Amino acid sequence: MSERIAVRKTYKLFIGGKFPRSESGRSYLVQSANVSLASRKDARDAVVAARAAVKGWAGATAYNRGQILYRVAEMLEGRREQFMALGVPADEVDAATDRWVWYAGWSDKLPQVYGGANPVAGPYFNLSAPEPTGVVAVVAPETPALLGLVSVIAPAIVTGNTVVVAASPTAPLAAVTLAEVLATSDLPGGVVNILTGRLSETVPTLAAHMDVNAIDLTGVTDPELAADLEVKAAENLKRVLRPVPVDHDWSADPGLGRMTALLETKTVWHPKGV
Amino acid sequence: MFEYAPAPESRSVVDIKPSYGLFIDGAFVDPADGGSFKSINPASEEVLSEVAEGGPQDVDRAVRAARKAYEKVWGPMPGRDRAKYLYRIARIIQERSRELAVLESLDNGKPIKESRDVDLPLAAAHFFYYAGWADKLNHAGFGANPRPLGVAAQVIPWNFPLLMLAWKIAPALAAGNTVVLKPAETTPLTALLFAEICQQAELPAGVVNIVTGAGETGRALVEHDGVDKVAFTGSTDVGRAIARAVAGSRKKLTLELGGKAANIVFDDAPVDQAVEGIVNGIFFNQGHVCCAGSRLLVQESVAEQVLESLKRRMAQLRVGDPLDKNTDIGAINSAAQLARIRELTEAGAAEGAQQWSPSCELPERGFWFAPTIFTGVTQAHRIAREEIFGPVLSVLTFRTPAEAVEKANNTPYGLSAGIWTEKGSRILWTADRLRAGVVWANTFNKFDPTSPFGGYKESGYGREGGRHGLEAYLNV
């Protein structure tokens, strides 16, 4: 009996809940797989998808968002072997799964921890509550391939933002496989969009895009590129998260900073009276 | 209108020096290059004082003084001791509030009843509030032992000179930073009096430095390598330029920029209250307010009634001498700002909107602009899109709540908004959908040190006030 011929996977982009090839028809070779080489047009399409998803996702209840993030952890747990086959160490897959669980629980707690009643000196009801900033462009860290990616996506979306992620150019297979996890977790299409390819092609487009509200430069390692992207981001005053050092410890307690940096605080006043 | 006898506040309570130096390292010093500029009273064009113009060398000296004070004195000082200095400052502001209020009205042109009843009490309250945080930072929700950033460069506008100084300096010092602050060039005098208050409070030298000057001085300050934090309040264009200037640096940036707030009046709103809110929203401080309710969105079915009431109320507004306690609307802050207001109102008329002002006599000298409304405004008009920063209201109408929200959010700004309706669920529904940092429902232009203030979108980022306001000055 002859050996079975394996069915290979096509690694494509993840935009609006679908898996299209790059509109440019290009790909590049990583770990013997042809990975889509996203174009500027793909980046713009991803922003359109992310914007379209904002209303539903930001408007979903915190309980609902929390359950969906927890569902992502469930799906990831079940695909442990698949990520290991891509070279992601077992403990990294576990840590990434646990990170989804950790952030899932924040959805209905952060507004209480980060907002609340303000004791103003007058007869007014006054309440501050966080709201998502909108569409966030994210440059994922180069490594660790899975934990790094999860650690930048989960804090952005748990509060109701939608994201366009430029995946690590050298480790895109884990990113596309994570997209498959997301696609089967009841996450509405467009909440997470993932672009593979060269950062130099997609990220400047995202940084300059007038319908993007914030940019997370975590994975940018070239200081000059980071400065240039920040200059582009200033055009519509995007909220900017600056790059983190390449030796950043992704297994450490993430704290609240990645969530709060992508939130707006809205304060509502109303007089008290009869 | 009733005739009122003049009721001017005496200016003898304040002693304005003929000239002021820069306040660096605890003392007033001459600028390195000897430049100066005049600060005038916008209500009379009288020169109030000559003020030093800080150049790059002066900025450098101030930043070094702030660094030294941060490393040697203020950084290592226990929070409880920083708190005591801030409490002292709050008390001195209260004790000298009459003097500060008169000086503010002289230099800025705002009515004395506003500087006396709004600016001064809020400035003192801000120091008092943040004083209490200085020894409680571990409990502020940023984890254990949050660290200050270092030296903060702060550039503030001319519309609320002392209050904006308080919003900047109080949280910075409470968190353990030292500051170099540049007041606006048209309104430096209360900041210089504040420098004297720092001396009176025996605040250690270098903790607060005040470098007066214009845009170039501000640029030198925010671009200085020795600065760890930049905080700016002012126009969106300058905010953008600052965001570019600090790109790629370690400097943490917070921006509080322009606005074009919608003040939404639904058909069930109590008309008299709403009209008071509309007047307060746009004519408070001559409309020199970033969160001013400069776009009135009124439901079509009540538009006629609301406008009639509004015009009747506007006819009662008293425009004139800022030091007169009866004055509702004072002077426009500068000739340049007056020119800007004129340019935009001319564009409003040219684009087809209908302009209306009550008949009111404006003083001959000084910079004045009558309270004005435009009706028949469309969303495409410049007066509906650009920040006028003056006593000019653009009136638009809507039919459904969804249309109101759509129009309210149709702006690159997102600082504030107003909602007038008797229906609670409609308030909350609308507030949820407005993309604005502060939403006033059945009220407008309320401020408090405990209440975070700041914008969405191109109105900037970061919050001032409340626990949130500490974040801008901590390494978190």
Automatic annotation (TrEMBL), chain A:
Protein name per its UniProtKB record: Aldehyde dehydrogenase
Keyword NADP: no
rRNA-binding among keywords: no
Record's signal peptide: none
PANTHER family for this protein: ALDEHYDE DEHYDROGENASE-RELATED
UniProt KW keywords: Oxidoreductase
Residues of the Aldehyde dehydrogenase domain: 33-240
Superkingdom assignment: Bacteria
InterPro entries assigned: Ald_DH/histidinol_DH (IPR016161), Ald_DH_N (IPR016162), Aldehyde_DH_dom (IPR015590)
From TrEMBL, chain B:
Cleaved signal peptide residues: none
SUPFAM superfamilies noted in UniProt: ALDH-like
Keyword field: Oxidoreductase
Record carries keyword Oxidoreductase: yes
Listed transmembrane segments: none
CDD domains documented for this protein: ALDH_F16
Residues annotated as domain Aldehyde dehydrogenase: 29-476
InterPro entries membership: Ald_DH/histidinol_DH, Ald_DH_C, Ald_DH_CS_GLU, Ald_DH_N, Aldehyde_DH_dom
Protein family membership: Belongs to the aldehyde dehydrogenase family.
Protein's name according to its UniProt entry: Aldehyde dehydrogenase
Organism: Micromonospora gifhornensis
Upper lineage: Bacteria, Bacillati, Actinomycetota, Actinomycetes, Micromonosporales
